Amino acid sequence: MNHVLYSPAKLNLTLRIGARRADGLHDLSSVFLRLPSVEALTITMDSENNVKDLLSVQTIELKGINLVTRASERLRALGWPLPFLRVSLWKQLPPGTGFGAGSGNGAAFLRWASALLGRSLPLELARELGADVPFLVSGLPLAFACGVGERLEGLKALNLSALLLVPRWSSPTARAFADLDRRREERGSSVSDPLFFRIEAETLVDDLRRGATVGLLPNDFTDLLAERHPEYGLFFAMAEKAGALAWGISGSGSGAFALAQGPTALLKLVASVSAEPWVTHLLVLE
């Protein structure tokens, strides 16, 4: 029997990064927006295999260990009687784009394994797998997150359409955080009060909820990425001209996005940006 799981992704409508902690991680303040299912996993119990899970990936090449494999290995290490599996993963969004598609794969798997075995969702494992996973495993449509992504406060859903843009370059998370730390050290920059981040986030969500144009959304990685790739500025200008409400970079990049009330403005934006040679994927979600 095949089990088909639909896997979500996310946008960071805001992303503020705190100072580096003693454990090497960073506290964050962010508004997470859940995206509709963009990828899918097909899981089959493998009665002939008692060695390891077998994972195949369709459409996009992945390097390293996918979060589905990491999640299954950790669950078994925790004593969960999970059989070995054959997993086929159909992907639309490459890694290193900040849309959390890999985290969505892991979150979908954790929810499935919990239901299969009748056990509570392993929230500590979700946090261990990555900052996006606790939100994606929660099922919340919109949330304010702090800590390292594990402290969530659910917010009322936003009824917005989104355009996701994947450029030809990626932005590995570890490198992005190291670059941000280095820049702050060189400039002697301080980190703002978390209360400011919360007020900023609440104001932006309220503005978007009433259909106001808010423009470029705050993300501490935007300046670094825009300096290396001026193409972001071109996309943001196109988004404004097309009539989008908001635009920005998700996570630590490299993916950019625009938001609008309904798809009309976004389809106009697609027509403008699709011919750009630096764009590899465009995806409109409602």
UniProtKB/TrEMBL annotation:
Q: Which residues form the GHMP kinase C-terminal domain?
A: 221-273
Active site at K10, D132
Keyword Acyltransferase applies: no
One Pfam family recorded for the sequence: GHMP_kinases_N
Chain ranges of the GHMP kinase N-terminal domain: 66-137
Under catalytic activity, the entry for this protein gives: 4-CDP-2-C-methyl-D-erythritol + ATP = 4-CDP-2-C-methyl-D-erythritol 2-phosphate + ADP + H(+)
Q: Which Gene3D superfamilies match?
A: 3.30.230.10, GHMP kinase, C-terminal domain
Q: Name one GO molecular function term.
A: ATP binding
The protein's enzyme class? transferase
Keyword ATP-binding in the entry? The reply is yes
Entry's EC annotation: 2.7.1.148
Its keywords, alphabetically, are:
ATP-binding, Isoprene biosynthesis, Kinase, Nucleotide-binding, Transferase
| Record-linked InterPro entries | GHMP_kinase_C_dom, GHMP_kinase_C_sf, GHMP_kinase_N_dom, IspE, Ribosomal_Su5_D2-typ_SF, Ribsml_uS5_D2-typ_fold_subgr
Biological processes, Gene Ontology terms: isopentenyl diphosphate biosynthetic process, methylerythritol 4-phosphate pathway; terpenoid biosynthetic process
Q: Which family does it belong to?
A: Belongs to the GHMP kinase family. IspE subfamily.
Q: What does this protein do?
A: Catalyzes the phosphorylation of the position 2 hydroxy group of 4-diphosphocytidyl-2C-methyl-D-erythritol.
Q: What's the protein name?
A: 4-diphosphocytidyl-2-C-methyl-D-erythritol kinase
> Which organism encodes this protein?
Aminithiophilus ramosus
